[in-house]
Write a structure and sequence with these properties.
The chain is of the alpha/beta class. Helix content is 45%, strand content 15%. The chain has 16 helices and 8 strands. Helix 1 runs antiparallel to helix 5, helix 4 runs antiparallel to helix 5 and helix 5 runs antiparallel to helix 6. It starts with 8 loop residues before the first helix and ends with a helix.
C-alpha cells in the first residue's frame, strides 16, 4: 500500500481514498506535504491541521471553478467542484465527533457534489427512500438518501438489474459513487444504488439515525422501493457490502429473500471480535478518534454501551439462510479485518448454490482493506461476477 505518511496508516488511508476516488495526485501532494511532521505524532493529534490543509485545497479549487463559470466553461467547473467536494469530505471524515466545523463542512461537501453533478451532466441522480424510523415517541416518517446510477444503453421502458451498494463504517454514498463502482457496473448493464444507510452519511449526520445491526429493518424498505422503480428488474437485485458492509450485506441477503445475490468487498464476519482486538491495540483503525467515532455511529452513551451494542454484530447462525449466489472477497494483507473472517463467512454459506471466495494477493493487487491500495482489478472482478449472476454484460 502506498503510504504517503510512512508512520501513520490512518492518515495514509484517507490520502489513498482521495487518490482512488477521483482525486488529483498533484493537488493531494500539495495538501499533504506540509503535514508530514504532524503525521508523525499519531492518528489523533494534528487532525485539525489536516482539516485546514484539505479545506484550503478544496477552497482553491472552488475559486478556480468560479473562474471557469465566468467563462461559461461548465464542465471544467463541474469537475473541479467534484474534487473539491471529495477533499472537503476527506477533511470532515478525519475529525472527531463534536468538532465544531464538521457538520457545516459536510453540508458544503454535499452541495458541491450536487452542483458538480448538475454541471457535468453525470449519470447520477439523488433519490430519497421512505423510511419509518423507530423513536421513543412512536414511529416517525423519514427517508434514507441514495445516489442512483442508471445502467448504460437502456432503451425507453427497459428494466435493468441493479446492485445496492452498502457503506462501511465511515464511508458515504458520494465517496463510493466516485470509486470504480461508479462506472464499472453501469458499463456492464447494471444500475446501482449507493445508499447512506443508518449510521452513515446523511442518515447519521443530517437524520440522526444511528447504525442498526439488524440490517433487515432498513434493507426491506429499500427493497420495497426498488421493486417499484420503473427502471429496475425486481427479480435481479443484488447487494454489495464494502468494509463493515461485509457484515450488513450478508445479513440483508439472509433476511430479505428478494435479493438475487450478494457480495462483499472485505468480509466482516465477527465485528464484535474486531472491537475486542482493537481494545488490545491489534490491527489498524480506519479513522482517527476511533472510539469517539463508533460511539457516535451507534448512538452509544459511552464505550461500554457501544461494546454492548456491538456484541450482536456477527454472522454466526445467520448465513445458512442465504440460498442465492454469494461472493466473498478479501485482501490478503488487510490490516483492519483479518483474512480469517473471509474464510468464516465462506464456510457458513452452506446453502448458497454458488458461493465463491476470492483472496486478492500480490499478483492480483488489492491486498489491503477493501482493496483500497489498488481497486481496479478487484473492482472489475466483482463487477464481472455480479454481471454474470444478474444477467448483465461482461
Amino acid at each position: 500500500m502506498f503510504q504517503y505518511f510512512p508512520t501513520n496508516y490512518v492518515w495514509s488511508l484517507s490520502t489513498l481514498i482521495a487518490l482512488t476516488h477521483g482525486g488529483n495526485i498533484g493537488e493531494v501532494d500539495a495538501m499533504c506535504a506540509p503535514l508530514r511532521e504532524a503525521a508523525q505524532a499519531g492518528d489523533d493529534p494534528g487532525t485539525v491541521a489536516f482539516y485546514q490543509a484539505w479545506k484550503g485545497g478544496a477552497e482553491q479549487l472552488e475559486g478556480l471553478a468560479q473562474q471557469d463559470l465566468l467563462r461559461g466553461r461548465r464542465r471544467s467547473a463541474g469537475e473541479k467542484l467534484g474534487r473539491a467536494a471529495l477533499y472537503h469530505g476527506i477533511a470532515e471524515r478525519m475529525q472527531a465527533h463534536g468538532f465544531e466545523h464538521r457538520l457545516a463542512q459536510y453540508r458544503h461537501s454535499l452541495a458541491l457534489f450536487e452542483r458538480s453533478r448538475q454541471l457535468t451532466g453525470e449519470n447520477c441522480v439523488r433519490v430519497e427512500i421512505p423510511y419509518v424510523r423507530p423513536d421513543f415517541d412512536g414511529p416517525q416518517p423519514g427517508h434514507l438518501s441514495g445516489l442512483y446510477v442508471r445502467a448504460q444503453g437502456l432503451a425507453p421502458g427497459q428494466r435493468a438489474p441493479l446492485v445496492l451498494v452498502l457503506n462501511g463504517l465511515d464511508s458515504t454514498k458520494e465517496m463510493l459513487q466516485k470509486s470504480v463502482m461508479g462506472t464499472l457496473f453501469a458499463q456492464r448493464g447494471l444500475s446501482t444504488l449507493f445508499l447512506d444507510q443508518p449510521g452513515t452519511g446523511e442518515a447519521l449526520r443530517l437524520g440522526g439515525l444511528p447504525a442498526v445491526p439488524q440490517t433487515e429493518t432498513w434493507a426491506t424498505p429499500v427493497m420495497d422501493w426498488l421493486v417499484q422503480h420503473p427502471e429496475v428488474d425486481p427479480a435481479r437485485i443484488g447487494a454489495l457490502g464494502v468494509s463493515l458492509g461485509g457484515y450488513y450485506c450478508p445479513r440483508a441477503v439472509a433476511f430479505e429473500p428478494r435479493f438475487a445475490c450478494g457480495a462483499v468487498w472485505g468480509a466482516n464476519h465477527d465485528w464484535r471480535a474486531v472491537q475486542q482486538a482493537r481494545l488490545q491495540r491489534e490491527g489498524e483503525n480506519p479513522v482517527p478518534h476511533y472510539w469517539k467515532h463508533v460511539q457516535w455511529v451507534f448512538g452509544a452513551r459511552d464505550l461500554d454501551d457501544f461494546l454492548a451494542k456491538a456484541e450482536g454484530m456477527h454472522l454466526n447462525g445467520v448465513l445458512d439462510r442465504i440460498r442465492v449466489p454469494f461472493l466473498v472477497t478479501h485482501g490478503e494483507n488487510d490490516r483492519q479485518i483479518p483474512l480469517k473472517y473471509a474464510h468464516q463467512t465462506y464456510g457458513q454459506l452452506v446453502n448458497s448454490p454458488r458461493r465463491e471466495l476470492i483472496v486478492f494477493d500480490q499478483q492480483t493487487g488489492g491486498v489491503e482493506h477493501s482493496s483500497l491500495d489498488n481497486p481496479a482489478n478487484a473492482g472489475n472482478l466483482i463487477a464481472d461476477w455480479l454481471a454474470e449472476v444478474l444477467g448483465g454484460q461482461v
